[in-house]
Amino acid sequence: MNxxxxxxxxxxxxxxxxxxxxxxxxxxxxxxxxxxYNGGHVFPAAISLGIYGVYGPREDNQVNLYSGNIDGPIxxxxxxxxxxxxxNHFWTNYFKGMITYLRQREDGNKINHxxxxxxxxxxxSGSGLSSSAALEMLMGIILKEEFELDVTRLELARLGxxxxxxxxxxxxxxxxxxxxxxxxxxxxIFLDCNSMEYEYKPxxxxxxxxxxxxxxxxxxxxxxxxxxxxxxxxxALKKLQQGLDIxxxxxxxxxxxxxxxxxxxxxxELKRARHAVSENQRTIRATKAMEDNDLEKLxxxxxxxxxxxxxxxxxxxxELDTLAETAWRQAGVLGARMIGGGFGGSAIAIVKKxxxxxxxxxxxxxxxxxxxxxxxxxDAEIVDGTKRI
Length: 389
Description:
Blueprint: H1 3-14, E1 20-29, E2 41-42, E3 44-57, E4 62-67, E5 75-78, H2 93-103, E6 115-121, H3 131-146, H4 153-168, H5 175-182, E7 187-192, E8 198-202, E9 208-214, H6 226-240, H7 254-260, H8 267-291, H9 295-311, H10 317-328, E10 333-339, E11 346-352, H11 356-371, E12 376-379, E13 387-388
Parallel strand pairs: 4-6
Antiparallel strand pairs: 1-3, 1-13, 2-7, 3-6, 4-5, 7-8, 9-11, 9-12, 10-11
């Protein structure tokens, strides 16, 4: 989006000039789904679909938020208001949580006046591309820069996760916030969510590109079975800890899980643990395959990820399965799978550039025939993390 247009929109809403413009990207995850809160590896990247914010200071303690994507009123609250919003203004909780937790820090008293914030998203809400994490990291970087806070990007990612977990009530891991704020152009991040060690790996896909496929079935993770999956994995871990000295499922491989599976002895919990463990191993192997330029192997592992998410984790559903399984049958496709929490949202496919138009046409038609409404397709560049522009 054009910076001047955004500043102009801010002035139309608030009747004065905005001072700074920021951008916070969404994310895709090449592979490694539902592994972050299980202490495993993930391989995400920040994308050019995201959320813009125009900031302007106020002299009082009022915070005024306006979304250019919602035909609604300006949402107003006091700087020290840490109540959780319900209903139509639920989206403001991602800002409120970050303000609340940053003001609790040692230098939080630097946030000593209110502000106006105009936001405009190119990231579809509920698309499984981490719009909530993008909002949190947008607020984090704005507060860090405008109030000169001594807070690192990693700390902001952790506060974003805390906002999800404690303020909003979703027991998610740290991958989404980490990817949004730590993204690097043309690279994915190989992150160990147990140790928080990470490496940037160039996303070298040659004649192929990543196409995002949105189901257009909105999912709200906080209202979904997401927290159930976290709890099921937690119970499986607790049972394994009777015989293993581990802190997370990501610490073991399939052979170890197989050997100690008698400790779990519950069909559902065993399936959840099997996904968490196998997906972590797949992620490690897939990252190595990409480094070795073995894109066919990378594609097969991406397909296997979807199968595991379908059968062992049971978070796909008709819409995501239709996209992934139809994609597998198309010419020039290396791999496809659902991404994000599941139950709607989006999938990705790695497609030969010369076949991209035909791919979208064929998958779009099949989706329309089976599901009954349109899917959307996005070509996204891999970009840097949240920043002032």
